[in-house]
Write a structure and sequence with these properties.
Number of strands: 0
Strand content: under 5%
Oligomer: single chain
Shape: elongated
Order of helices and strands: HHHHHH
Structural class: mainly alpha
Distance between the termini: 30 Å
């Protein structure tokens, strides 16, 4: 059995980057405290990473042998085979949107578990219903949309930094 320590350390580093960036985006875009934003970012990133690894190990046996070798070689040894770059871009695109969906679903579940009156407290909702600028549907969706946009922006920022780190790592490997 091979113990992929470099992959585990890199995943931990990426999780640290993601939590730092996404928690600052949550704090700036949503009405939550710094502690809550860090807790949310940490929880949704850990869930996303766990689901991603479970999916990887679930789907790996069903891949064709050449694709399986290429994928495992890239994930564990950071080496691309022939035509591997297009495969990495395709998988990266799919993983980006799948991670976003997992993060959004887990954040909504956390909100509903922590606060059963989510998305709005009844007194806040009553104040907004009296305002003619807001429809009832917009009032109920406003916090969810704000959080969804915060998750999307944080996810985009963190993945951009992670791509930059991977690019620097690949440049270092070429030398």
């Amino acid at each position: 059995m091979v113990f992929p320590l470099p992959t585990i350390l890199l995943q931990t580093f990426f999780l640290t980057i993601s939590v730092a960036i996404e928690s600052s985006v949550f704090y700036s875009r949503c009405p939550v405290s710094r502690k809550t934003s860090v807790e949310y970012a940490l929880a949704i990133n850990l869930i996303s990473a766990c689901v991603g690894w479970f999916f990887f190990f679930y789907i790996e046996p069903f891949l064709s042998p050449p694709l399986k070798i290429q994928l495992i070689t890239y994930v564990f040894l950071n080496q691309l085979g022939e035509g591997g770059l297009s495969l990495v871009f395709l998988i990266g695109f799919i993983v980006f949107w799948a991670n976003f969906a997992i993060k959004l679903i887990s954040l909504n579940l956390f909100n509903k578990v922590i606060d059963p009156t989510y998305p709005l407290k009844p007194e806040y909702e009553a104040d907004l219903e009296n305002d003619s600028r807001y429809s009832t549907r917009k009032i109920k969706k406003a916090p969810e949309r704000r959080q969804a946009m915060a998750v999307l922006w944080g996810h985009c920022y963190s993945h951009s930094v992670i791509l930059f780190v991977l690019w620097i790592k690949d440049i270092e490997n070429l030398n």
